[in-house]
Inverse folding.
């Protein structure tokens, strides 16, 4: 930690000589509702985890389903090359009454090609007797037999003690007996699992210390049902666990697992133990986002360290202090985890937000009066329903307009959209846009799949002769909501309400967001759409034009005709 960072640093604990960062995104993470990984997804995520520098990647349960078996086969064929990590195959102890050497799922572990196996075993008396429906002695025999067999086959073995913390509360003697049995059979690390995720941080330390007295390396695996998975993991680490299990973005069964990136960032940045390869932590944000892109399950914007909001500042008082020193409102420099500070523009902004955001965009807003004028504009427009927090591009247009630095690439003289639907026939929508661009008046008609599409076609066609770059612009998202409360009072309720439309536009490399507001959804959409083209041109066209936003002329007509 640098002296300028905000959190006070307690006396550092000594790091254990060897510390394991163990990722289970591909196994326990994949147990999350709505998350389904193909073999290719798994290979790509494993490569990213290796880039993050984790020590172990639990790839899945070979033999339990064809997908996981195929993943290990692909890895064994050389489709996965790991620089840092070891691949781990997950599985269970042998079946009750069986023999490990003959157990088909144990065979799948052996045949997986992974050098390490992680076995799940029961350590809670109630689970042995009621779920496994066997004796306490047979459960211990299953552990001994399976661990010894895999060790004899040349594999490293870790053992997950399922429901360890709950089991310890019910019968500490038996829970510790499981730890001892696994250690004596040759398990290298015995992992204490909070399978139901019901623990609190203050409950962890004594239990971990008691297990530590057995004299084996301990790991910890926590679920997040109390919202304490990361805190519980850290409590276990401070009590002596040297192996932490977790998942990227906290994916996992029910409420998820401990977020491994949070755990690792806390261990590195707060406890001061370097547990990843040098510099790897600065890739954490990129990797968490890349994993989310593959799973198609986005991480929380408010995720510690790597969320898009982790270092986003909205309140005016925060921004005014941040202008003096960002560390006054940040616990670390975001660059340490590869994240960035972001300044949000909203009705909670003060001058400082506007000045910092302005500087970010390349404008000098040091003049207090100018900054105050822009702040007042933002607050007035937000009161009318605009939202600049999510619409950076519209904010830049507003700022340039206030500064007199908005080029007039085009001025709209007239637009119209007409939808027609007759019984039994598909509806037809046609839009007309008349505008002046580079001195020429253009009038174009566009047909589309609905009014926004038709307007987009007409606007694009009308602008193309003057600005061929617009051909690359594509609407990538469209969000609309009705506005209620003080803002909505200006309109009405229900279908009569004012609406806010947010449009994301991409040119293939950049994406920008614009906002439109109105009592007519088509007008609001048009405002957001035309601003999107305006903003795109601002960054595509170097030719300066006369300053000022497109002003309406006396002969301008604005028509909306929608019929059913
Ligand atoms: C805490 C965790 O999250 S551990 C990971 C859990 N992950 C999964 O369960 C996903 C993969 N699982 C599967 O594909 C299947 O459950 C399989 C292939 C493992 C087993 O499937 P099936 O043979 O159809 O059995 P089923 O799932 O109904 O029951 C599990 C069996 O394993 C037994 N079992 C449970 N834990 C263990 C253990 N640690 N060691 C040995 N056997 C166990 C159960 O008692 C039950 O035995 P039974 O068949 O005699 O009733
Ligand atoms: C092993 C495991 O996933 C658990 O106990 O939660």
């Amino acid at each position: 930690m640098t002296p300028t960072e905000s959190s006070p640093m307690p006396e550092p604990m000594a790091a254990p000589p060897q510390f394991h960062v163990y990722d289970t995104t591909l196994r326990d993470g994949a147990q999350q509702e709505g998350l389904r990984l193909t073999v290719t997804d798994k290979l790509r995520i494993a490569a990213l985890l290796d880039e993050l520098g984790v020590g172990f990647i639990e790839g899945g349960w070979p033999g339990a389903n064809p997908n996981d078996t195929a993943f290990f086969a692909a890895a064994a064929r050389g489709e996965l090359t790991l620089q840092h990590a070891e691949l781990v195959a997950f599985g269970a102890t042998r079946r009750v009454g069986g023999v490990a050497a003959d157990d088909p799922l144990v065979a799948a572990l052996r045949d997986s090609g992974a050098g390490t196996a992680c076995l799940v075993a029961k350590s809670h008396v109630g689970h042995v007797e009621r779920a496994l429906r066997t004796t306490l002695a047979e459960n211990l025999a299953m552990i001994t037999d399976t661990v010894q067999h895999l060790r004899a086959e040349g594999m490293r073995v870790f053992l997950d003690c399922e429901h360890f913390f709950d089991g310890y509360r019910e019968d500490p003697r038996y829970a510790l007996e499981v730890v001892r049995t696994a250690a004596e059979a040759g398990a290298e690390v015995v992992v204490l699992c909070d399978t139901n995720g019901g623990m609190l941080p203050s409950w962890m330390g004594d239990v971990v210390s008691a297990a530590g007295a057995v004299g084996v390396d301990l790991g910890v695996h926590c679920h997040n049902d109390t919202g304490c998975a990361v805190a519980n993991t850290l409590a276990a680490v401070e009590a002596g666990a040297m192996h932490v299990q977790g998942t990227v973005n906290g994916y996992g069964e029910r409420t998820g697992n401990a977020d491994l990136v949070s755990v690792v960032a806390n261990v590195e940045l707060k406890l001061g133990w370097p547990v990843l390869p040098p510099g790897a932590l600065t890739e954490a944000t990129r990797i968490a986002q890349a994993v989310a892109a593959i799973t198609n399950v986005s991480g929380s914007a408010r995720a510690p360290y790597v969320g898009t909001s982790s270092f986003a500042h909205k309140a005016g008082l925060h921004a005014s202090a941040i202008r003096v020193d960002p560390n006054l409102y940040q616990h670390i420099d975001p660059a340490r985890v590869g994240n960035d500070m972001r300044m949000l523009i909203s009705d909670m902004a003060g001058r400082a937000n506007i000045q910092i955001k302005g500087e970010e965009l390349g404008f000098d807003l040091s003049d207090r009066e100018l900054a105050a004028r822009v702040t007042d504009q933002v607050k007035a427009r937000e009161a009318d329903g605009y939202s600049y927090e999510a619409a950076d591009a519209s904010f830049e247009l507003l700022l340039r307009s206030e500064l007199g630095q908005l080029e007039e690439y085009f001025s709209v003289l007239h637009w119209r959209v007409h939808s027609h639907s007759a019984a039994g026939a598909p509806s037809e929508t046609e839009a007309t846009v008349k505008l002046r661009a580079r001195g020429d008046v253009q009038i174009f008609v566009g047909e589309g799949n609905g009014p926004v599409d038709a307007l987009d076609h007409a606007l694009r066609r009308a602008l193309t002769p003057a600005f061929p770059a617009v051909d690359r612009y594509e609407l990538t998202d469209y969000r609309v909501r009705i506005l209620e409360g003080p803002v909505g009072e200006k309109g009405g309720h229900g279908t009569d309400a004012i609406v806010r439309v947010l449009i994301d536009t991409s040119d293939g490399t950049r994406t920008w967001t614009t906002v439109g507001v109105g009592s007519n959804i088509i007008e609001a959409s048009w405002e957001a759409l035309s601003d999107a083209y305006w903003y795109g041109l601002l960054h595509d066209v170097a030719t300066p034009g006369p300053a000022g936003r497109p002003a309406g002329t006396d002969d301008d007509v604005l028509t909306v005709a929608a019929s059913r």
Summary: Confidence is low (pLDDT under 50) at residues 543-564. The longest helix spans residues 521-540.
